[in-house]
Write the structure tokens for this entry.
Amino acid sequence: MPVSPLPPRQGISANRLRAPGGHQTHTRSGDPVPATVGEWLRAEFPDASAADIAGLLAQDPQTVSDAGCLCDGTGRPIAATDPVIPGGFYWFHRPVPPEARIPFEIGIVHSDADLLVVDKPHFLASTPNGRFVRECAVTRLRVEREEPDLVATHRLDRVTAGLLVLSRRPETRGAYQRLFQDRRVHKTYRALAELPAGFGSGGWEAARPGEECVRRVERWSRLEKEPGTRQMLEVPGEPNAHSTIEHLGAAGRLGDFRLTPHTGRTHQLRVHMNGLGLPILGDPVYPVDLAPDPYDFFSPLQLLAERLAFTDPLTGEPREFTSRLGLSGWG
């Protein structure tokens, strides 16, 4: 993946475009290459005005004032008359409008030379996503801490709270990102759900002596996206998702659960809990997608990324982090 030559602006990373043509395989490698960058951009963005296209390009590539315009991989500002680099990458900062603040703060759990571990609150996206670009954990932390190199090594759903790990240095970032990509990080979550009548039947095992949980179940299923919706569905077929779900105790009809994902499918824990007849309290998507206003903070999802543990790829030492957050209605 090419690295942007442009630093983040107000905590927001530059956007990337790839020109058609070139010798490498990509989706546009077989398209004809326009003679100039101006011609390419007019074809690429047919609905953009001439002023919009002109604003993206350097008027004088030698001037510092044009440094925020479209740049090539070396950071050199590009003019409309420049030839297109076949298959080349170009970078630019697009305008980002103001966003209403998500009224919850990020807690710092741990900081060292390479990592920043934080408690992400409910309702705050981890990374820029759709309508939330400024109001996400990465952008906020880059601005507040004046650390433009911060990058999340994994993601949490916007409505999930808890531990988020960010890389502070490009030099060591890949090693930590690979931990998460290769699923060499042990994660546990806590969740609250209403206990249905007859809870405990249907595959739940009683805890063995000395175990802190009351009962557990291994949930294996195949998850696929429901077309046109946000929901993932459990469908027939070879399983691609596995979770361990442990019941830790109850207060009346409210059950406390520890969830361990062994795979990393979208919404996996939420789908598996719902499939067991235990939809997590406050879930806006399962069993029914309520399509709530993202600025409605009345009923947070009772799901918390509580613990992360891994062997540090640089030192070989064990690392473990525990969230300082809790769940509503539980001690």
Observations:
- The first helix runs from residue 37 to 44.
- Residues 63-67 have pLDDT under 50 and may be disordered.
- The helical segments are 37-44, 50-56, 137-145, 170-181, 268-275.
- DSSP finds five helices and 14 strands in the chain.
